[in-house]
Specification:
The structure is a single chain. The protein is of the alpha/beta class and 716 residues long. The chain folds into four domains: 243 residues, NAD(P)-binding Rossmann-like Domain (Rossmann fold, 3-Layer(aba) Sandwich), CATH 3.40.50; 160 residues, Rossmann fold (3-Layer(aba) Sandwich), CATH 3.40.50.261; 172 residues, 2-Layer Sandwich (D-amino Acid Aminotransferase, Chain A, domain 1), CATH 3.30.470; 76 residues, ATP-grasp fold, A domain (Dna Ligase, domain 1, 2-Layer Sandwich). It has 24 helices and 30 strands. The protein has a seven-stranded mixed β-sheet, with helices on both faces. Strands 15, 16, 17, 18, 19 and 20 form a six-stranded mixed β-sheet that branches. Helix 6 packs parallel to helix 7, helix 13 runs parallel beside helix 14 and helix 14 runs parallel beside helix 15. The protein is flat and about 100 Å long. The C terminus is likely disordered.
Amino acid sequence: MTASLRQVFEARSVAVAGASKDPFKAGHQVVRTLLAAGYLGRIYPVNRSEKEILGLPCYSSISQIKEPLDLIVISLPGKVVITVMEEAERRGDVKGAVVLSSGFAETAIPENVETQRQLAEIARRAGIRVFGPNCIGIMSPDLRLVTGFHPGVSLVPGDLGYVTQSGALGGSLVTLALSQPRPLGFARFGHVGNMCDVSNVELIEEYGDDPRIEVILVYLEGVKDGREFMRVAGRVAKKKPVLVLKVGRTEIGSKATLSHTGALAGADGVYSGAFKQCGVVRANTVHDLIAGAKAISMLPKPRGNRVCILTEAGGMGVISMDEVAAGGVLALAPMSRETCEKLTALLPPMAAVCKPDGYVDTSAAAMAKEFGDAMRLVLADANVDMVVLNCIPPTFLPAMDVAQAVVPVVKEFGKPVAACFTVNDTVIETRRYLEENGIPTFEAPDCAVRALAMMTQATFNVSYPLADAPAAHHPVLDRAVSEGRHLLEPEALAFLGDHGIAVMPHVVARTREEAQRAAMEMNGPVVLKIVSPHVIHKSDVGGVRIGLQGSEAVGQGYDQLLGDVKRAAAAASIHGVLVVPLAQPGPESIIGMVRDAQFGPTIMFGMGGVFVELFRDVSFRVAPFDREVALDMIRETKGYRVLQGMRGERQKDIAGLVELLVQVSQLAARYPQIREIDLNPIRVYENGHSVLDARILLDAGPPSCGEGVQIGQPGP
């Protein structure tokens, strides 16, 4: 029977295999740390050569321990780890193991990878849960249990739960939280190391069911199964906040560069979209992660996102407002005229009140009583959901006086208030007093705003369920797969049309005369585009002619297009020329899909032209999804304002784009043979849209050779 993670965290006996008298060895430090922490269970040092270590009797092996044994901490070379695990299997009572040792799969050396596989196999067979290898393991303050040796960690009980893929960084997060004026304690800490058994996703799920944990903090380098992460984190986020510090923001997560989507779909963009989709709150720095957890664990939930900046110093106030605007989560509170008039009457003449709305600069002339009264007026306003209080107390105004004036007011109203008192020795006691009375303090005004923003996200974020669709077949795809190629554009248009996606009228012309006849039937200016399985980016080889009208112009354009393509891509097989009507002008969007290694089919939306090329104004979500998620994607881009209508322009058909996004997400989920989809550009109108170019790349297609033209042997 496999042990539960809770049994491991609540271990009442620990054997340290590899315990040592040498203070520079990990095995010595683990025993010393357990003793110093006051571990409430039994400690069994294991070393064949020693009789005792740090006053504790030593055992030659774990098989010599006659009492029940719950947990083993192993600090031995890889092959010896296997021996210890085999002994644990024979014992039959061991619940968990923490393998401190490195030199396993992280080295990518085949022999070491095999040793880790053997470790995982023994653990699975014996029902022993393994943290690591290459990790410092777990901490449980209630039992004074700690299997690592990070300096400065105190086992202060609290409501935080840590999941980390770095032992050193994880320990630093704990010490940073403990260094707050009122230390932030924790209930559980888990470092997963190589994740041969226990994973970061499983720990998140375990913490979600633990009533002692109110906020889950995750240091994330990556996940093995992105979709499983989303399912688990989505379920947990409905019950309690999940805050993630995801590193590797600049890592290129996709080598596919044949489409705009592939070029833009770095791993970080996909992770950000997945986090939003499953209700996870992302922090960008170590300090923000702790600040967000601090605000969430100390403050009441906000009723909305409207914040008042109550500041005694103009510079701090401006920084706060800048962060509100840049963050995009909070908004300055539209306080009532009555509140603004009362504040004006209360504060010194040089105070700046409601300029802009939601901003109050009391000026340095305000005294403690005026701070308290101003806080009461602000919190009493129904349009204020939370307050940032900034203060640099002058020499004639003790900081503690200000704190004592505002604390009873804040307690009276029960709304979130975050304070920034400038960092120096004169405010240390004041910050501690504020935090002991439920008001979190921060070292900078922008940090206070970001903490409130993360708390607001955690309160109002929605987790969307992620479903998998059964694999489907389509004759167009099956034929291309059997021939080992990507879809030609006419095939892509036919495939999209078969699934209810509106595409432009089109004809494949194989002669000059066919092109002229098709253009005449379209009765207007047309566009000619080369059709070739070996030309990915048509314009790079002169494979596009735009705005041709009249038989002669179309004929000349057809001849010139073929000539240019044959000169630029002599080996390319040409299947004809696509004739389509010239689309009406309008703003352009792009919708794409890539099959991400962790998350599977992932959809991108962005505005076309310079928005995507220069500003990379795009958003990502994992397929499939519904209309609400699709609308979030569009709203997330700066181009959303263009679609809403700017400078007298009417609003475009946003609902139509939403439907198109949903349709593409469903296609991506149903057809695993599709590697990439690029609908670019999509011309958007007041009513409807036009897909001007469609590219669908298949797994069976020819390998990528980078941006530009792909040349191969001529086709049939």
